[in-house]
Protein backbone atom coordinates (compact mmCIF):
# COMPACT_ATOMS: atom_id res chain seq x y z
CA UNK A 1 0.00 0.00 0.00
CA UNK A 2 1.22 3.52 -0.84
CA UNK A 3 2.37 5.48 2.22
CA UNK A 4 1.98 9.23 2.62
CA UNK A 5 5.23 10.77 3.92
CA UNK A 6 5.74 13.36 6.65
CA UNK A 7 8.67 14.91 8.50
CA UNK A 8 6.96 14.15 11.80
CA UNK A 9 3.91 12.17 12.90
CA UNK A 10 2.41 12.94 16.30
CA UNK A 11 -0.08 10.53 17.88
CA UNK A 12 -2.39 12.34 20.32
CA UNK A 13 -3.43 16.00 20.31
CA UNK A 14 -3.33 16.89 24.02
CA UNK A 15 -0.76 19.11 25.75
CA UNK A 16 1.98 16.72 24.64
CA UNK A 17 0.98 16.25 21.00
CA UNK A 18 -0.26 19.73 20.18
CA UNK A 19 2.87 21.38 21.57
CA UNK A 20 5.40 19.37 19.60
CA UNK A 21 3.28 19.40 16.42
CA UNK A 22 2.91 23.21 16.48
CA UNK A 23 6.57 23.68 17.40
CA UNK A 24 7.76 21.65 14.39
CA UNK A 25 5.20 23.33 12.11
CA UNK A 26 6.64 26.69 13.13
CA UNK A 27 10.01 25.56 11.69
CA UNK A 28 8.40 24.68 8.36
CA UNK A 29 8.11 20.90 8.71
CA UNK A 30 5.30 18.79 7.28
CA UNK A 31 3.56 17.46 10.38
CA UNK A 32 0.71 14.95 10.74
CA UNK A 33 -1.26 15.14 14.00
CA UNK A 34 -3.64 12.32 14.88
CA UNK A 35 -6.38 11.96 17.45
CA UNK A 36 -9.25 9.53 17.82
CA UNK A 37 -12.12 12.00 17.29
CA UNK A 38 -12.56 15.74 16.80
CA UNK A 39 -13.98 16.00 20.36
CA UNK A 40 -10.68 14.66 21.72
CA UNK A 41 -8.57 17.47 20.21
CA UNK A 42 -6.95 19.36 23.08
CA UNK A 43 -6.81 16.11 25.07
CA UNK A 44 -7.40 15.76 28.78
CA UNK A 45 -6.33 19.28 29.75
CA UNK A 46 -8.95 21.03 27.63
CA UNK A 47 -11.74 18.45 27.71
CA UNK A 48 -11.73 16.70 31.09
CA UNK A 49 -8.77 17.98 33.14
CA UNK A 50 -7.14 21.35 33.84
CA UNK A 51 -9.56 23.65 32.02
CA UNK A 52 -12.91 22.30 33.28
CA UNK A 53 -11.52 21.69 36.77
CA UNK A 54 -10.01 25.18 37.11
CA UNK A 55 -13.20 26.77 35.72
CA UNK A 56 -15.33 24.73 38.14
CA UNK A 57 -13.01 25.66 41.04
CA UNK A 58 -13.27 29.32 40.04
CA UNK A 59 -17.08 29.19 40.13
CA UNK A 60 -17.12 27.50 43.52
CA UNK A 61 -14.55 29.96 44.94
CA UNK A 62 -16.66 32.90 43.77
CA UNK A 63 -19.70 31.45 45.56
CA UNK A 64 -17.64 30.76 48.68
CA UNK A 65 -16.34 34.32 48.76
CA UNK A 66 -19.85 35.72 48.32
CA UNK A 67 -20.99 33.61 51.27
CA UNK A 68 -18.03 34.80 53.34
CA UNK A 69 -18.92 38.42 52.57
CA UNK A 70 -21.84 37.98 54.97
CA UNK A 71 -19.40 38.87 57.76
CA UNK A 72 -19.35 42.37 56.23
CA UNK A 73 -23.13 42.63 56.26
CA UNK A 74 -23.81 41.49 52.70
CA UNK A 75 -26.93 39.36 52.57
CA UNK A 76 -26.56 36.46 50.19
CA UNK A 77 -29.53 34.33 49.23
CA UNK A 78 -30.71 32.20 46.33
CA UNK A 79 -29.97 28.63 45.30
CA UNK A 80 -26.77 27.51 43.61
CA UNK A 81 -27.46 26.16 40.12
CA UNK A 82 -25.11 23.32 39.17
CA UNK A 83 -26.30 23.39 35.52
CA UNK A 84 -25.36 27.10 35.36
CA UNK A 85 -21.93 26.35 36.82
CA UNK A 86 -21.41 23.53 34.29
CA UNK A 87 -22.53 25.91 31.53
CA UNK A 88 -19.83 28.35 32.70
CA UNK A 89 -17.31 25.49 32.55
CA UNK A 90 -18.37 24.66 28.97
CA UNK A 91 -18.17 28.33 27.97
CA UNK A 92 -14.60 28.56 29.27
CA UNK A 93 -13.67 25.41 27.34
CA UNK A 94 -15.25 26.92 24.23
CA UNK A 95 -12.91 29.91 24.40
CA UNK A 96 -9.84 27.68 24.30
CA UNK A 97 -11.42 25.38 21.71
CA UNK A 98 -11.40 28.30 19.28
CA UNK A 99 -7.70 27.62 18.77
CA UNK A 100 -7.68 23.93 19.70
CA UNK A 101 -9.89 22.34 17.05
CA UNK A 102 -9.26 20.44 13.83
CA UNK A 103 -10.37 23.21 11.42
CA UNK A 104 -8.26 25.87 13.11
CA UNK A 105 -5.19 23.63 13.25
CA UNK A 106 -5.61 22.62 9.59
CA UNK A 107 -5.78 26.30 8.63
CA UNK A 108 -2.53 26.79 10.53
CA UNK A 109 -0.94 24.15 8.32
CA UNK A 110 -1.07 20.92 10.35
CA UNK A 111 -2.31 17.77 8.64
CA UNK A 112 -4.95 16.24 10.92
CA UNK A 113 -6.38 12.76 10.71
CA UNK A 114 -9.09 11.48 13.05
CA UNK A 115 -8.82 7.81 13.94
CA UNK A 116 -6.91 5.37 16.11
CA UNK A 117 -3.26 5.03 15.13
CA UNK A 118 -1.19 1.85 15.31
CA UNK A 119 2.38 1.08 14.29
CA UNK A 120 2.87 -1.21 11.30
CA UNK A 121 6.67 -0.84 11.06
CA UNK A 122 9.55 1.05 12.70
CA UNK A 123 8.65 4.28 10.88
CA UNK A 124 5.07 3.92 9.71
CA UNK A 125 1.61 3.79 11.18
CA UNK A 126 -1.86 2.86 10.01
CA UNK A 127 -5.01 4.91 10.59
CA UNK A 128 -8.40 4.10 9.09
CA UNK A 129 -6.71 1.49 6.83
CA UNK A 130 -4.29 4.01 5.31
CA UNK A 131 -0.55 4.10 5.92
CA UNK A 132 1.68 7.03 6.84
CA UNK A 133 5.45 7.25 7.28
CA UNK A 134 7.73 9.81 8.92
CA UNK A 135 11.38 10.37 9.80
CA UNK A 136 10.35 10.62 13.46
CA UNK A 137 7.18 9.76 15.37
CA UNK A 138 6.07 11.15 18.74
CA UNK A 139 3.73 9.13 20.96
CA UNK A 140 1.62 11.56 23.03
CA UNK A 141 -1.30 9.31 23.89
CA UNK A 142 -1.79 10.49 27.49
CA UNK A 143 -3.16 8.50 30.41
CA UNK A 144 -6.59 7.57 31.81
CA UNK A 145 -8.09 7.68 35.30
CA UNK A 146 -7.47 4.52 37.30
CA UNK A 147 -10.74 2.86 38.29
CA UNK A 148 -11.32 0.18 40.91
CA UNK A 149 -14.10 -2.35 41.24
CA UNK A 150 -16.22 -1.70 44.29
CA UNK A 151 -18.71 -4.26 45.56
CA UNK A 152 -22.22 -2.82 45.07
CA UNK A 153 -21.00 -0.04 42.75
CA UNK A 154 -24.09 -0.44 40.55
CA UNK A 155 -26.22 0.89 43.45
CA UNK A 156 -24.65 4.33 43.24
CA UNK A 157 -23.30 6.85 40.70
CA UNK A 158 -19.52 6.57 40.26
CA UNK A 159 -17.54 9.32 38.52
CA UNK A 160 -14.07 10.16 37.35
CA UNK A 161 -12.80 13.43 35.86
CA UNK A 162 -14.09 12.12 32.50
CA UNK A 163 -17.76 12.44 33.43
CA UNK A 164 -18.03 14.49 36.64
CA UNK A 165 -18.43 17.73 34.68
CA UNK A 166 -21.67 16.31 33.22
CA UNK A 167 -23.32 16.19 36.68
CA UNK A 168 -26.75 17.86 36.64
CA UNK A 169 -27.40 17.92 40.39
CA UNK A 170 -25.23 18.07 43.46
CA UNK A 171 -24.75 14.79 45.35
CA UNK A 172 -25.70 15.37 49.00
CA UNK A 173 -23.01 13.02 50.34
CA UNK A 174 -20.08 12.79 47.95
CA UNK A 175 -17.22 10.36 48.61
CA UNK A 176 -13.88 11.17 46.98
CA UNK A 177 -11.51 8.22 46.71
CA UNK A 178 -7.84 9.21 46.70
CA UNK A 179 -6.37 12.30 48.33
CA UNK A 180 -4.20 13.39 45.40
CA UNK A 181 -4.62 16.71 43.57
CA UNK A 182 -7.62 15.56 41.52
CA UNK A 183 -9.78 14.65 44.56
CA UNK A 184 -8.50 17.42 46.82
CA UNK A 185 -9.15 20.19 44.27
CA UNK A 186 -12.56 18.90 43.16
CA UNK A 187 -13.56 17.71 46.66
CA UNK A 188 -13.12 21.24 48.04
CA UNK A 189 -15.04 22.73 45.11
CA UNK A 190 -18.00 20.33 45.56
CA UNK A 191 -17.95 20.88 49.31
CA UNK A 192 -18.13 24.65 48.85
CA UNK A 193 -21.14 24.20 46.58
CA UNK A 194 -22.96 22.24 49.27
CA UNK A 195 -22.05 18.53 49.02
CA UNK A 196 -21.00 16.81 52.24
CA UNK A 197 -17.57 15.62 51.13
CA UNK A 198 -15.54 12.75 52.59
CA UNK A 199 -12.06 12.14 51.18
CA UNK A 200 -10.66 8.64 51.63
CA UNK A 201 -7.08 7.57 51.00
CA UNK A 202 -5.26 4.39 51.87
CA UNK A 203 -2.12 6.32 52.77
CA UNK A 204 -1.62 8.38 55.91
CA UNK A 205 -1.49 11.86 54.40
CA UNK A 206 -3.09 13.95 51.68
CA UNK A 207 -1.09 15.20 48.65
CA UNK A 208 1.70 12.67 49.16
CA UNK A 209 4.18 14.62 47.03
CA UNK A 210 4.04 17.54 49.49
CA UNK A 211 6.01 18.01 52.70
CA UNK A 212 3.84 17.19 55.79
CA UNK A 213 4.41 20.77 57.05
CA UNK A 214 2.35 21.90 54.05
CA UNK A 215 -0.08 19.00 53.54
CA UNK A 216 -1.06 18.80 57.23
CA UNK A 217 -1.77 22.55 57.28
CA UNK A 218 -3.90 22.26 54.15
CA UNK A 219 -5.79 19.29 55.60
CA UNK A 220 -6.55 21.36 58.71
CA UNK A 221 -7.89 24.20 56.55
CA UNK A 222 -10.10 21.81 54.60
CA UNK A 223 -11.38 20.22 57.81
CA UNK A 224 -12.34 23.71 59.00
CA UNK A 225 -14.51 23.87 55.86
CA UNK A 226 -16.25 20.67 57.03
CA UNK A 227 -14.52 18.24 54.68
CA UNK A 228 -14.03 14.85 56.36
CA UNK A 229 -10.88 12.82 55.85
CA UNK A 230 -10.59 9.09 56.36
CA UNK A 231 -6.92 8.27 55.90
CA UNK A 232 -5.30 4.83 56.11
CA UNK A 233 -8.65 3.64 54.80
CA UNK A 234 -10.27 2.18 51.70
CA UNK A 235 -13.81 1.75 50.46
CA UNK A 236 -15.06 -1.79 51.18
CA UNK A 237 -18.54 -1.84 49.70
CA UNK A 238 -21.55 0.20 48.64
CA UNK A 239 -24.46 -0.96 50.80
CA UNK A 240 -27.32 0.97 49.19
CA UNK A 241 -27.93 4.08 47.12
CA UNK A 242 -27.10 6.13 50.21
CA UNK A 243 -24.56 4.19 52.27
CA UNK A 244 -20.99 2.90 51.94
CA UNK A 245 -18.70 0.86 54.14
CA UNK A 246 -15.16 2.09 54.73
CA UNK A 247 -12.43 -0.14 56.13
CA UNK A 248 -9.40 1.26 57.92
CA UNK A 249 -5.94 -0.31 57.66
CA UNK A 250 -6.48 -1.55 61.24
CA UNK A 251 -9.47 -3.58 60.03
CA UNK A 252 -12.14 -1.34 61.56
CA UNK A 253 -15.32 -0.88 59.50
CA UNK A 254 -17.46 2.24 59.38
CA UNK A 255 -20.71 2.98 57.56
CA UNK A 256 -20.94 6.45 56.07
CA UNK A 257 -23.65 8.22 54.04
CA UNK A 258 -22.85 8.20 50.30
CA UNK A 259 -24.90 9.24 47.27
CA UNK A 260 -22.04 9.33 44.79
CA UNK A 261 -18.41 8.24 44.54
CA UNK A 262 -15.61 10.03 42.69
CA UNK A 263 -12.39 8.19 41.81
CA UNK A 264 -9.22 10.29 41.91
CA UNK A 265 -6.97 7.26 42.21
CA UNK A 266 -4.09 8.16 39.92
CA UNK A 267 -3.54 7.48 36.24
CA UNK A 268 -3.09 4.44 34.03
CA UNK A 269 -1.05 4.02 30.86
CA UNK A 270 -2.37 1.84 28.08
CA UNK A 271 -0.53 1.31 24.80
CA UNK A 272 -2.51 -1.70 23.55
CA UNK A 273 -3.94 0.22 20.56
CA UNK A 274 -0.50 1.21 19.32
CA UNK A 275 0.95 -2.21 18.45
CA UNK A 276 4.34 -1.09 19.79
CA UNK A 277 6.10 -4.38 18.94
CA UNK A 278 5.73 -3.65 15.22
CA UNK A 279 7.99 -0.61 15.72
CA UNK A 280 10.48 -2.34 18.02
CA UNK A 281 9.40 -0.23 20.99
CA UNK A 282 10.02 -2.08 24.25
CA UNK A 283 8.03 -1.64 27.43
CA UNK A 284 8.86 -2.17 31.07
CA UNK A 285 5.68 -3.21 32.86
CA UNK A 286 3.06 -0.71 31.72
CA UNK A 287 5.62 1.96 30.77
CA UNK A 288 7.49 2.54 27.52
CA UNK A 289 11.25 2.16 28.01
CA UNK A 290 12.76 5.62 27.56
CA UNK A 291 16.16 7.24 27.83
CA UNK A 292 16.61 10.74 29.21
CA UNK A 293 16.13 12.13 25.69
CA UNK A 294 12.58 10.70 25.77
CA UNK A 295 13.67 8.29 23.05
CA UNK A 296 12.20 4.79 22.93
CA UNK A 297 14.14 1.64 22.01
CA UNK A 298 13.33 2.66 18.43
CA UNK A 299 15.64 5.67 18.01
CA UNK A 300 13.16 7.46 15.74
CA UNK A 301 10.20 7.20 18.09
CA UNK A 302 9.85 9.56 21.08
CA UNK A 303 7.29 10.12 23.83
CA UNK A 304 5.80 13.33 25.22
CA UNK A 305 3.30 14.11 28.00
CA UNK A 306 1.68 11.69 30.43
CA UNK A 307 2.58 8.75 28.15
CA UNK A 308 6.24 9.27 29.15
CA UNK A 309 5.27 8.00 32.62
CA UNK A 310 7.13 10.61 34.66
CA UNK A 311 5.54 13.91 35.79
CA UNK A 312 1.89 14.09 34.68
CA UNK A 313 1.21 17.78 34.17
CA UNK A 314 0.44 19.93 31.15
CA UNK A 315 3.61 21.89 31.81
CA UNK A 316 5.59 18.63 32.08
CA UNK A 317 4.40 18.01 28.51
CA UNK A 318 5.66 21.50 27.63
CA UNK A 319 9.02 20.61 29.18
CA UNK A 320 9.14 17.36 27.17
CA UNK A 321 8.35 19.28 23.99
CA UNK A 322 11.04 21.90 24.58
CA UNK A 323 13.53 19.07 25.00
CA UNK A 324 12.33 17.22 21.88
CA UNK A 325 12.33 20.39 19.80
CA UNK A 326 15.85 21.20 20.93
CA UNK A 327 17.09 17.69 20.21
CA UNK A 328 15.38 17.56 16.79
CA UNK A 329 16.79 20.92 15.70
CA UNK A 330 20.10 21.40 17.49
CA UNK A 331 23.40 19.46 17.48
CA UNK A 332 23.68 20.07 21.27
CA UNK A 333 21.39 17.44 22.79
CA UNK A 334 19.57 17.92 26.09
CA UNK A 335 18.48 15.38 28.69
CA UNK A 336 15.42 15.39 30.90
CA UNK A 337 16.09 17.08 34.24
CA UNK A 338 13.41 17.65 36.86
CA UNK A 339 15.66 19.40 39.39
CA UNK A 340 13.82 22.73 38.96
CA UNK A 341 10.36 21.38 38.22
CA UNK A 342 7.37 23.00 39.91
CA UNK A 343 3.63 22.51 40.25
CA UNK A 344 0.58 24.09 41.81
CA UNK A 345 -2.42 22.42 43.42
CA UNK A 346 -5.36 24.75 42.94
CA UNK A 347 -7.06 24.40 46.29
CA UNK A 348 -7.91 27.55 48.23
CA UNK A 349 -5.34 28.29 49.62
CA UNK A 350 -3.13 27.02 46.80
CA UNK A 351 -0.11 24.78 47.27
CA UNK A 352 2.91 25.68 45.13
CA UNK A 353 6.03 23.50 45.18
CA UNK A 354 9.37 23.61 43.35
CA UNK A 355 12.84 22.07 43.22
CA UNK A 356 14.07 19.29 45.50
CA UNK A 357 12.01 17.91 48.38
CA UNK A 358 13.67 17.09 51.71
CA UNK A 359 13.52 13.40 50.84
CA UNK A 360 15.33 14.01 47.55
CA UNK A 361 17.97 16.21 49.22
CA UNK A 362 18.68 13.44 51.73
CA UNK A 363 18.77 10.81 49.00
CA UNK A 364 21.21 12.90 46.94
CA UNK A 365 23.25 13.74 50.05
CA UNK A 366 23.04 17.47 49.31
CA UNK A 367 23.79 19.52 52.47
CA UNK A 368 20.78 21.74 53.11
CA UNK A 369 19.00 23.86 55.69
CA UNK A 370 15.25 23.79 56.22
CA UNK A 371 13.56 27.16 56.79
CA UNK A 372 9.90 27.29 57.85
CA UNK A 373 7.57 30.14 58.58
CA UNK A 374 3.91 31.06 58.58
CA UNK A 375 2.65 34.32 57.10
CA UNK A 376 2.17 36.10 60.45
CA UNK A 377 5.01 38.51 59.65
CA UNK A 378 3.47 39.46 56.30
CA UNK A 379 1.32 42.60 56.47
CA UNK A 380 -0.31 41.55 53.22
CA UNK A 381 -1.40 38.34 54.92
CA UNK A 382 -2.66 40.32 57.93
CA UNK A 383 -4.78 42.67 55.79
CA UNK A 384 -6.19 39.80 53.71
CA UNK A 385 -6.42 37.48 56.73
CA UNK A 386 -4.24 34.53 55.75
CA UNK A 387 -1.57 34.67 58.46
CA UNK A 388 -1.82 30.88 58.79
CA UNK A 389 -0.28 30.48 55.31
CA UNK A 390 2.99 28.53 55.28
CA UNK A 391 6.33 28.86 53.56
CA UNK A 392 9.01 26.18 53.48
CA UNK A 393 12.42 26.71 51.90
CA UNK A 394 15.41 24.45 51.46
CA UNK A 395 18.65 26.36 50.99
CA UNK A 396 22.23 25.20 50.59
CA UNK A 397 24.05 24.60 53.87
CA UNK A 398 27.17 26.78 53.86
CA UNK A 399 29.99 26.50 56.39
CA UNK A 400 30.73 30.22 56.08
CA UNK A 401 28.61 32.99 54.64
CA UNK A 402 25.10 31.55 54.57
CA UNK A 403 24.03 34.60 52.52
CA UNK A 404 25.68 32.97 49.49
CA UNK A 405 23.37 29.92 49.78
CA UNK A 406 21.20 29.11 46.78
CA UNK A 407 17.55 28.08 46.95
CA UNK A 408 17.18 24.31 46.46
CA UNK A 409 13.43 23.85 46.76
CA UNK A 410 10.36 24.63 48.77
CA UNK A 411 6.62 25.14 49.01
CA UNK A 412 4.10 27.84 49.77
CA UNK A 413 0.58 27.34 51.09
CA UNK A 414 -1.31 30.60 50.62
CA UNK A 415 -3.98 32.20 48.45
CA UNK A 416 -2.30 32.86 45.09
CA UNK A 417 0.76 30.75 46.05
CA UNK A 418 1.08 29.72 42.40
CA UNK A 419 1.80 33.33 41.47
CA UNK A 420 3.72 34.30 44.63
CA UNK A 421 6.31 31.53 44.29
CA UNK A 422 7.29 32.28 40.70
CA UNK A 423 10.39 34.26 41.69
CA UNK A 424 11.52 31.38 43.90
CA UNK A 425 11.21 29.05 40.90
CA UNK A 426 13.40 31.46 38.94
CA UNK A 427 15.82 31.83 41.88
CA UNK A 428 16.07 28.04 42.00
CA UNK A 429 16.70 27.54 38.28
CA UNK A 430 18.93 30.62 37.81
CA UNK A 431 21.05 29.94 40.91
CA UNK A 432 20.12 33.20 42.68
CA UNK A 433 21.48 33.46 46.24
CA UNK A 434 19.42 34.28 49.31
CA UNK A 435 21.45 37.52 49.64
CA UNK A 436 20.02 38.60 46.27
CA UNK A 437 16.49 37.95 47.54
CA UNK A 438 17.37 39.84 50.71
CA UNK A 439 18.66 42.82 48.67
CA UNK A 440 15.46 43.10 46.68
CA UNK A 441 12.97 45.81 47.70
CA UNK A 442 9.46 44.37 47.53
CA UNK A 443 6.57 46.79 47.05
CA UNK A 444 4.63 47.04 50.32
CA UNK A 445 2.53 45.08 51.18
CA UNK A 446 3.01 42.11 48.86
CA UNK A 447 2.82 38.46 49.92
CA UNK A 448 6.04 37.62 48.03
CA UNK A 449 7.83 39.74 50.65
CA UNK A 450 7.64 36.55 52.78
CA UNK A 451 10.59 35.24 50.70
CA UNK A 452 12.67 38.12 52.01
CA UNK A 453 11.40 37.73 55.58
CA UNK A 454 12.36 34.04 55.66
CA UNK A 455 15.86 34.56 54.29
CA UNK A 456 16.41 37.73 56.35
CA UNK A 457 15.57 35.78 59.52
CA UNK A 458 18.13 33.18 58.47
CA UNK A 459 20.87 35.69 57.62
CA UNK A 460 20.26 37.54 60.91
CA UNK A 461 20.95 34.29 62.79
CA UNK A 462 24.58 34.60 61.60
CA UNK A 463 24.95 38.04 63.10
CA UNK A 464 27.17 37.40 66.15
CA UNK A 465 27.44 39.80 69.15
CA UNK A 466 31.01 40.74 68.09
CA UNK A 467 29.75 41.73 64.64
CA UNK A 468 27.11 43.95 66.21
CA UNK A 469 29.82 45.46 68.42
CA UNK A 470 31.94 46.34 65.38
CA UNK A 471 28.89 47.88 63.68
CA UNK A 472 28.20 49.97 66.76
CA UNK A 473 31.85 51.08 66.68
CA UNK A 474 31.46 52.24 63.05
CA UNK A 475 28.33 54.14 64.01
CA UNK A 476 30.10 55.91 66.84
CA UNK A 477 33.51 56.58 65.29
CA UNK A 478 33.14 56.09 61.54
CA UNK A 479 33.25 58.97 59.03
CA UNK A 480 29.93 60.58 58.04
C1 LIG B 1 -8.94 16.68 36.84
C2 LIG B 1 -7.55 17.00 36.34
C3 LIG B 1 -7.02 18.27 36.53
C4 LIG B 1 -5.75 18.56 36.08
N1 LIG B 1 -5.25 19.81 36.32
C5 LIG B 1 -4.00 20.13 35.90
C6 LIG B 1 -3.48 21.42 36.12
O1 LIG B 1 -4.13 22.28 36.71
N2 LIG B 1 -2.23 21.70 35.66
C7 LIG B 1 -1.48 20.76 35.00
O2 LIG B 1 -0.36 21.07 34.60
N3 LIG B 1 -1.96 19.50 34.78
C8 LIG B 1 -3.20 19.18 35.21
N4 LIG B 1 -3.69 17.93 34.98
C9 LIG B 1 -2.86 16.96 34.23
C10 LIG B 1 -2.96 17.25 32.72
O3 LIG B 1 -4.33 17.29 32.35
C11 LIG B 1 -2.26 16.14 31.93
O4 LIG B 1 -0.95 15.97 32.42
C12 LIG B 1 -2.15 16.51 30.46
O5 LIG B 1 -3.41 16.85 29.94
C13 LIG B 1 -1.58 15.33 29.67
O6 LIG B 1 -1.49 15.67 28.32
P1 LIG B 1 -1.09 14.55 27.24
O7 LIG B 1 -0.98 15.25 25.93
O8 LIG B 1 0.05 13.77 27.72
O9 LIG B 1 -2.32 13.55 27.21
P2 LIG B 1 -3.85 13.77 26.82
O10 LIG B 1 -4.24 15.17 27.01
O11 LIG B 1 -4.61 12.70 27.49
O12 LIG B 1 -3.87 13.54 25.24
C14 LIG B 1 -3.69 12.29 24.68
C15 LIG B 1 -4.51 12.22 23.42
O13 LIG B 1 -4.10 11.07 22.67
C16 LIG B 1 -5.22 10.50 22.05
N5 LIG B 1 -4.90 9.11 21.72
C17 LIG B 1 -4.63 8.10 22.58
N6 LIG B 1 -4.34 6.97 21.91
C18 LIG B 1 -4.44 7.27 20.59
C19 LIG B 1 -4.26 6.52 19.39
N7 LIG B 1 -3.89 5.24 19.40
N8 LIG B 1 -4.47 7.15 18.21
C20 LIG B 1 -4.84 8.45 18.17
N9 LIG B 1 -4.99 9.20 19.26
C21 LIG B 1 -4.79 8.62 20.46
C22 LIG B 1 -6.33 10.67 23.07
O14 LIG B 1 -7.61 10.64 22.46
C23 LIG B 1 -6.01 12.03 23.69
O15 LIG B 1 -6.74 13.09 23.12
C24 LIG B 1 -4.97 17.58 35.41
C25 LIG B 1 -5.50 16.31 35.20
C26 LIG B 1 -6.77 16.00 35.67
C27 LIG B 1 -7.31 14.63 35.44
N1 LIG C 1 -3.10 21.21 39.77
C1 LIG C 1 -2.50 20.28 39.05
O1 LIG C 1 -1.45 20.50 38.45
C2 LIG C 1 -3.12 18.93 38.94
C3 LIG C 1 -4.44 18.73 39.34
C4 LIG C 1 -4.98 17.46 39.21
C5 LIG C 1 -4.20 16.44 38.69
N2 LIG C 1 -2.93 16.66 38.32
C6 LIG C 1 -2.09 15.57 37.78
O2 LIG C 1 -2.87 14.39 37.66
C7 LIG C 1 -2.21 13.31 38.27
C8 LIG C 1 -3.20 12.35 38.85
O3 LIG C 1 -3.79 12.87 40.04
P1 LIG C 1 -4.59 11.95 41.06
O4 LIG C 1 -5.02 12.79 42.19
O5 LIG C 1 -5.60 11.16 40.32
O6 LIG C 1 -3.51 10.87 41.45
P2 LIG C 1 -2.40 10.71 42.60
O7 LIG C 1 -1.61 9.53 42.20
O8 LIG C 1 -1.69 11.99 42.84
O9 LIG C 1 -3.24 10.39 43.91
C9 LIG C 1 -4.00 9.23 44.01
C10 LIG C 1 -4.23 8.90 45.47
O10 LIG C 1 -5.11 7.77 45.52
C11 LIG C 1 -4.71 6.94 46.59
N3 LIG C 1 -5.24 5.59 46.32
C12 LIG C 1 -4.92 4.77 45.29
N4 LIG C 1 -5.68 3.66 45.33
C13 LIG C 1 -6.50 3.79 46.41
C14 LIG C 1 -7.53 3.00 46.96
N5 LIG C 1 -7.89 1.84 46.41
N6 LIG C 1 -8.19 3.46 48.05
C15 LIG C 1 -7.83 4.64 48.62
N7 LIG C 1 -6.88 5.44 48.12
C16 LIG C 1 -6.22 5.03 47.04
C17 LIG C 1 -3.20 7.02 46.60
O11 LIG C 1 -2.70 6.69 47.87
C18 LIG C 1 -2.97 8.51 46.22
O12 LIG C 1 -2.84 9.32 47.36
C19 LIG C 1 -1.31 13.94 39.31
O13 LIG C 1 -0.17 13.16 39.51
C20 LIG C 1 -0.96 15.27 38.74
O14 LIG C 1 0.25 15.12 38.01
C21 LIG C 1 -2.38 17.89 38.44
From TrEMBL:
Residues 6-319 form the FAD/NAD(P)-binding domain. Its cofactor is FAD. Residues 343-449 form the Pyridine nucleotide-disulphide oxidoreductase dimerisation domain. It comes from the Bacteria. This is FAD-dependent oxidoreductase. InterPro entries: FAD/NAD-bd_sf (IPR036188), FAD/NAD-binding_dom (IPR023753), FAD/NAD-linked_Rdtase_dimer_sf (IPR016156), Pyr_nuc-diS_OxRdtase (IPR001100), Pyr_nucl-diS_OxRdtase_dimer (IPR004099), Pyr_OxRdtase_I_AS (IPR012999). Pfam families: Pyr_redox_2, Pyr_redox_dim. Belongs to the class-I pyridine nucleotide-disulfide oxidoreductase family. SUPFAM superfamilies: FAD/NAD(P)-binding domain, FAD/NAD-linked reductases, dimerisation (C-terminal) domain.
Amino acid sequence: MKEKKYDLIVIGSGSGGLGIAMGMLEFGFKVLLIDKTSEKIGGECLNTGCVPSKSFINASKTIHQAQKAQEFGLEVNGKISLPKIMEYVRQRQKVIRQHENADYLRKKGLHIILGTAKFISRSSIEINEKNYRAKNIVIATGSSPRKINIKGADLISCYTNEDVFQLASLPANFIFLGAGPVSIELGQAFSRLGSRVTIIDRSSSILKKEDPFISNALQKKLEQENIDFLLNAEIEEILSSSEAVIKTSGGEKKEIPADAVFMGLGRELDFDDLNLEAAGIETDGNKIKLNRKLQTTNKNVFVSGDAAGNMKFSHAAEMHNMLLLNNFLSPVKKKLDFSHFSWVTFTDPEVATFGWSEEQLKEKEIPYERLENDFRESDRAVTANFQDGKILLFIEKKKFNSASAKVLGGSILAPGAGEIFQELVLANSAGITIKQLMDKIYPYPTAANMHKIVVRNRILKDLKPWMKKIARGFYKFGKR
